[in-house]
């Protein structure tokens, strides 16, 4: 069985600008096995589908103990690298974030998403605040001895409608990306961004591999690769499509 350290190193190597790794987000051991069988190079959870699968709303409503139990079972179900969505780290203070990261790494994950929106509140954490939180996560990663991949997410583009996305928002995202990289992040996650020109601008300006979610308004994989994207994920899309299929089949059975 491949060691956690080797899995982490392999996961880092998958992030190449212009040749993006594709992560088709899952929510439990069963969905992980299906996606692995389909040819995945790594497994990634999404906070929304994990919460929904257990009957919770997104936004750290699902207890952390349950999230960690679930990820432990997912890691045990596959020999692929597993990265998880840690939302805001289940705590505002850097010490709380570090504790959450330490617990997650102990379950076998080799990476995690970490967002800058104020969970349960409104808006984003100030850059100075988020930098301290990312630095705490990076320190916890270093202390663990596992070279885990920190995917620093900004919610700038989710807080605005796609037709409101602009160069000014991208400039703000670039500022955050540079600060997050200095704090120890390995990737920059910009969910919601779909405009080709703006994606290209972001990828060109940011040293970190950029992660884009394949939402309906986002260009296809080939175009994202051309624009310099280093990671493509699917977020809640697979779960929602599965839920629609299941409901349709159930309705047909009940007719």
UniProtKB/TrEMBL annotation:
Looking up SUPFAM superfamilies in the UniProt record yields: Phosphoenolpyruvate/pyruvate domain
Pfam families registered for this protein in UniProt: PEP_mutase
Report which superkingdom the organism of origin falls in.
Bacteria
Sorted alphabetically, which InterPro entries does this protein's record hold? ICL/PEPM, Pyrv/PenolPyrv_kinase-like_dom, Pyrv_kinase-like_dom_sf
UniProt xrefs under CDD domains: ICL_PEPM (cd00377)
Molecular function GO terms recorded: catalytic activity
Protein name listed in UniProt: 2-methylisocitrate lyase-like PEP mutase family enzyme
What is the source species? Aminobacter aminovorans (Chelatobacter heintzii)
Higher taxonomy:
Bacteria, Pseudomonadati, Pseudomonadota, Alphaproteobacteria, Hyphomicrobiales
């Amino acid at each position: 069985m491949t060691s956690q350290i080797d899995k982490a190193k392999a996961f880092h190597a998958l992030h190449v600008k212009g040749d993006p790794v594709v992560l088709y987000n899952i929510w439990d051991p069963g969905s992980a096995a299906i996606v692995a069988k389909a040819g995945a190079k790594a497994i990634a959870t999404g906070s929304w589908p994990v919460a929904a699968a257990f009957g919770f709303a997104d936004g750290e409503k699902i207890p952390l103990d349950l999230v960690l139990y679930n990820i432990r079972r997912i890691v045990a179900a596959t020999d692929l690298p597993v990265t998880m969505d840690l939302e805001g780290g289940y705590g505002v203070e850097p010490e709380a974030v570090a504790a959450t990261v330490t617990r997650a790494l102990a379950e076998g994950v080799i990476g995690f998403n970490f967002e800058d929106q104020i969970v349960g509140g409104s808006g984003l954490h100030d850059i100075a605040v988020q930098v301290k939180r990312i630095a705490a996560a990076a320190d916890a990663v270093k202390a663990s001895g596992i070279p885990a991949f920190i995917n620093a997410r900004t919610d700038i583009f989710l807080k605005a409608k796609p037709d409101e996305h602009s160069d000014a928002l991208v400039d703000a995202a670039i500022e955050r990306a540079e600060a997050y990289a200095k704090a120890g992040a390995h990737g920059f996650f910009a969910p919601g961004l779909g405009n080709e020109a703006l994606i290209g601008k972001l990828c060109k300006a940011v040293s970190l591999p950029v992660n884009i979610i394949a939402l309906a308004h986002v260009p296809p994989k080939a175009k994202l690769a051309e624009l310099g994207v280093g990671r493509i994920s699917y977020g809640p899309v697979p779960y929602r499509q599965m839920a629609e299929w299941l409901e349709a089949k159930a309705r047909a059975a009940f007719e």
